[in-house]
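Late entry, evening session. Most of the bench is empty. Finally got around to the prediction I had been postponing all week. Sequence below, unchanged from the version circulated by S.P.
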Amino acid sequence: MTYFMDKGLQLRALEPEDLELVFAIENNRDLWRWGANNVPVSRYTVRQYLSSQQNDIYLDGQLRQVMTIEGQPVGIVDLCNFEPRHQRAEVGIVVLPEFHRCGIATEALRQLCVYASSCLHLRSLYAYVAADNEPALRLFLSAGYTETARLKRWLEGDSTAVLFQLML
């Protein structure tokens, strides 16, 4: 692991102080092609979102956690599209560019997996990854996810999505 990982990655609940972090990630147009967002989000909307979250996946239907190293935010990891009946959730992850290639995403996925299995009692996690997003493809494969399907014309610009699944 790198210097950053030696300092210990922690996942924590969203705080009101994370407004600028969430605002920057949600409004990063480079990320829009990988996710569901395609419109700018106001600070007011992010503030409302932060204040309305209970940090309880059963109440919110999702769980968003901030990845930190020595208290410094380095990204966000999500469990969304939570299905308690089927014991599964979708995973999303964004690491700030200055912290890419440091092992942060791999460790965050490992911690998220432990939490999803031991605390939420989920049976599977899944993620959609653009077929041309090589770093994300490598990430999910190295984290033990299995390619389950290729979905044609699934993402913006008729891009193919790779569906990854991890059985817990």
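Two things to note before I forget:
The first strand starts at residue 9 and ends at 13.
The chain has a mean pLDDT of 92.
Will write this up properly tomorrow.
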